[in-house]
Design goal:
Two copies of one chain form a homodimer. By secondary structure, chain A is mainly α. The first copy, chain A, is built from seven helices and three strands, in the order H-E-H-H-E-E-H-H-H-H. Chain A is elongated and about 65 Å long. Chain A starts with a helix and ends in a 21-residue tail after the last helix. Chains A and B meet through helix 1, helix 4, helix 5, helix 6 and helix 7 of A and helix 1, helix 4, helix 5, helix 6 and helix 7 of B. Chain A binds a DNA duplex through helix 2 and helix 3.
Chain lengths: ~200, ~200
DNA sequence: ACACACATGTAATTGGTTACATGATTTC
DNA sequence: GAAATCATGTAACCAATTACATGTGTGT
């Protein structure tokens, strides 16, 4: 097996952004790959220790300007090599589990209106996420970036997210339309129907 | 806490299709919700026992025509109620983890060509899955179904899958285009470029 | 005779979340 | 001086996969 995924995210983040502490690494993860990857402290701190013991990262001793005590780390050459090797290995897709789709699939056995509610929530969350991603994209384009060597890859994943969300939102409209004829029932929350899918500006 | 997801899939499957054994339940899962949900035997058999002990399902005693010894189960009224309650609870989305996107994101640090390889594989797998789903859809439409009360929900999830896959495939084309200018490197496997995205017939 | 699909299960391990414990620093 | 956020960590728990063990029936 040997799937230490957490370790590799940390290596990858440190490769882009050296001298970060566990706390910062987590924040960076949330802000950059957050929409398709998450890590908890309970996973990060122990892994940081382990990576240090294996010589893949080193705790920064210098530049003790840090206000509260905190430990920053950087990649060693061995760590960078390790990251590169992992990147070359075919990706492994872990078994998918989408509770939203599952509940929808079993919608026949749900009380009337339930599935519609789920789809509504799905829509709202996807809209929210989509606007976040579009903002991120705009910032990235406008701001510095561009010339950074990581930029195209970062854009690629962003574009992927945007494309998936748009398609999910389109689907959700047709899904609601389909269920409204026949389901309906007690459909609360008519909602001011805030526009529809955000478009790129 | 309290997310017994496995238990609910089993209840849901038995609600649609009673008198199934653990082995069959697993097959049914793979064939129906397989593209967004998976279960292993190590999870199914113990859960079956537990659900029996809780009175949510009953082992079928009758109709012992089954060639090899095997235990079939059916929902009890309590089990059906339990399923309904669970369906009404807002879905919980578990933290996303997409190793493909992660490796792509760190593509800057990969050897040349690596990211392209990943995308190629991604494309192939999505094409395969898409054709499978389209076949399923065609069968479902043509075949019996239609009138079954579960049909619209089943279609909804299928349509979702198809939409997501199409959008992913479109994205992958543009991604390859983007990486080909600059990456390239030693791009093996020029591949006979088997058409592109399958269209609906 | 051999292999493969049917069929049921258990044990070990792991990957991961959650909750808890603790304390410093900033901001209101 | 209270609250929020920065910051690091540990322990308990759990869901799930994997590998193993075992045996029957079917087809070649």
């Amino acid at each position: 097996m040997q799937r230490n995924q957490t370790a590799y995210v940390i290596l990858g983040i440190l490769a882009i952004h050296p001298h970060q502490s566990g706390y910062e690494i987590r924040k960076t993860i949330q802000q950059s790959v957050g929409f398709f990857w998450g890590e908890s402290y309970g996973q990060i701190y122990p892994t940081l220790k382990r990576l240090g013991a294996e010589g893949l990262i080193v705790p920064d001793v210098s530049a003790s300007q840090t206000r509260p005590k905190r430990q920053e780390y950087s990649l060693t050459p061995a760590g960078h090599l390790c990251l590169q090797e992992w990147l070359a290995v075919p990706y492994r897709e872990d078994p998918p589990r989408d509770e939203f789709l599952l509940k929808l699939f079993f919608g026949r056995d749900a009380a009337p209106g339930v599935s519609i509610q789920h789809i509504r929530r799905f829509q709202e969350e996807n809209r929210r996420l989509l606007t976040t991603l579009l903002e991120l994209e705009a910032m990235a384009r406008a701001h510095n970036s561009q010339s950074l060597p990581g930029f195209p890859f970062w854009m690629l994943t962003l574009n992927f997210g945007v494309a998936q969300l748009r398609s999910a939102l389109e689907w959700s409209e047709s899904a609601l339309a389909l269920l409204s004829t026949g389901e309906a029932g007690l459909v609360s929350n008519p909602q001011p129907t805030n526009s529809t899918v955000p478009e790129k500006p």
